[in-house]
Amino acid sequence: MPGRTSLLRRLFASFALFFIVAGEPIGLLAAQDDSTTVSGRFRSRGTADDGGDELFEGVSVVVTDASGAEVATAVSNADGEWVAVLPGAGDYVVTLDESTLPEGVAVREGTDPATPITANVGRDNPVIIPLGERVASDSGSIKMVQLFVDGLKLGLIIGMTAIGLSLIFGTTGLVNFAHGEMVTFGAMVAFLFNVTGIFGFKLTLILAAIVSTLLCGVAGGLFNQLIWKRLRDRGSSLISMLVVSIGLSILFRYVLLYFFGGRGRPYRNYQIQKVIDFGPFSLPPKDVVIVVVSLTILVTVGLLLQKTRIGKAMRAVSDNRDLAESSGIDVEGVVRYVWIAGGALAGLGGVLFGLTEDIGWEMGFRLLLLMFAGVTLGGLGTAYGALFGSLIVGVLIQMSTLVVPSDMKNVGALLALVVILLVRPQGLLGKSERVG
Amino acid sequence: MDWGSILENTLRGFVGEQAIYFALAAIGLNIHFGYTGLLNFGQAVFMAAGAYGLALTVVYAEQSFWLGIFVGLFVFPVIMALILGVPTLRLRADYLAIVTIAAAEIVRLFLRSPKWDSVTGSSDGLGQYADTFYEFSPFEPRTRYGFGPLNFLGNQLWVVIIGWIVVAIVLVIVATLVRSPWGRVLKAIREDEDAARSLGKNAYFYKMQALILGGVIGAAGGLMRAIGTQSAQPDNFITDVTFLAWVALILGGAARVFGPVIGAMILWGVLSFTDTFLRQAVDQDIIPTSIMEGTQVGQVRFMLIGFSLALLAAFRPQGIFGNRDEMALDDR
User: Fold this and answer.
1) By the number of CB atoms within 10 A of the CB, which of A7, A196, A392, B327 ranks highest?
2) Which of A80, A109, A134 is where one domain is finished?
3) What's the pTM?
4) DSSP state of A59
5) Residue from A227, A246, A248 to probe the interface with B (highest B Cβ count within 10 Å)
6) Cβ pair B114:A405 closer than 8 A
7) pLDDT tens profile B133-178
8) Which residue, of A134, A160, A194, is where some domain finishes?
9) Does residue A112 come out as left (phi exceeding 0), alpha (psi in the -120 to 50 range) or beta?
């Protein structure tokens, strides 16, 4: 089904929408005379209780001609299909009467219920009116709650990936631009086990995610051991290491593109889910899992940093490397653990990010800029700051769709990055030391 | 294998339009990084400022081409430099890197957004604004002019000639400036900002001036590109464009007047060579399609860029022709 991917992509692009309903041609040919037909179908894929399509009966549409005069009306049947007969070829406008839609369903946000169409004689003219969850009809505060929750979810994902970035910076001073590719790598490894399969053997996504997390941890450790440790031992400067990481980021990104292909693809079995209603907001089960998993992991990481020896050592090295070294901490050992943990968290974050949208070769790089925003906002080099800043960035991104078009939502986060550098360059949780 | 066409394309890469655009972008970066030590990873945004300065003036505001050149060279890039510089130039170098890379993406997303389609043309961009430029061309637009194995269409030849003249003029200006007292202050700031400050130099202002100058030169690269292709599209200014300019700079050697130009020529010579070579190898089934398809050739180019950037930065931070004592990536 070629149309399905693009529909899915649009679905995943918009966090708030879980219904997908499309008008589809039903293959009615027009009669022999000049008259022609327009048709469509109202349904919601895979959201019925039995997992099948929900079909919307009794939805009425009105067709008007170029002058605005009404030329035809139609009502959808039990299969959700409708057909309207038009007097001839020409430009028409098909308007959906939103009040006849079932409760909770509306024309998808951003699309007009009035759809222009150019009708041709001799064939049926399909009209697609994309439907979505009724968001606009909710009161403003409820929409804000929903966006806030979506933002927290995104923030948790950013935070999970950003902790590694921040700790690596804190312990080694490296701004690792290749961190985003670790995220993509994690998502793609899980895709490999989940969808492509190894020797025809496919894992469920949960197992695939665990495998991917472990592999990314190993990859992070190897990355440090093979490249960064050697550069540190050679005495390379931080700037040249930063440029090395940019080079490696480009290299890895295009290697991943080479093997994965440019088309975004989703995980198996988790494409469409019926939402669970939580009162002021609703989430599909996979998003609930994302929130629960990331909260659990982040709390665990926080406890490990706070309570265990290695966690304390990480914070100590991050705070003051020389002091830590002179008080007997094995700094290189700590750095190794930071890389392993950072890689694993980035990989898991990649899998979760891949669940919210399609897995694509550029996903990590896009996330990297948001990580930078979060990390800078919270304070470069601190673990909790990274988490805190990321949550703010996530919420800011989703809430900003209230005022800016959704394709511009990341702009707000990046602007916040610039503003925070103006006002409080050490970040919200950073120590106020001179960073210039 | 048609070695003739491989040679021709390699030569074209060496002296052609792309080498000019990226030579200018890299000269701008050289001012930023080579002489002042600023880590600008958003050079693409200055190129976009140049291109859209011209395109918006001519297409949207319906003003003359010459005003467009002025706006593209001196208005948009200067504003951009001020926006980027004010918050970051007081901070450590890596903050500028993060902010510039973010700013380049912000601007690209703005230009792509369908919201302002009537102004910016969103992802299709703007086009056909440089007819005035070609009216001055002494060459027949559709005639091919040959120089040995090389040949250019009349209009291309005009772009190439004017482009190299612009590069030459910019090089003279840069060479003069960096040898002047002003240029020596820049180098002093690069070497030790505190020392420069303690001698009473306002490092912040000098850095800002350097950011503006390098930005204007980068914008000249974007302008030449916008004129040469007669179209300005947001996706011409993705972050990879910045990285290409960086490779050109480091390849040739930072803090050398001719470094970025030589770097850009080598870069595009090598890229054109590998592109043509791989494409022919794929077409003639020397490389089986199971390993590489035609669409993947362009991806190999970027792998090569990333790999060489990483290798250069790790093992030869002063660049191929750079002087280690003068400037290496290593110092700060």
Assistant:
1) B327
2) A134
3) 0.77
4) -
5) A246
6) yes
7) 998 888 888 888 888 778 888 888 999 999 999 999 999 999 999 9
8) A134
9) beta
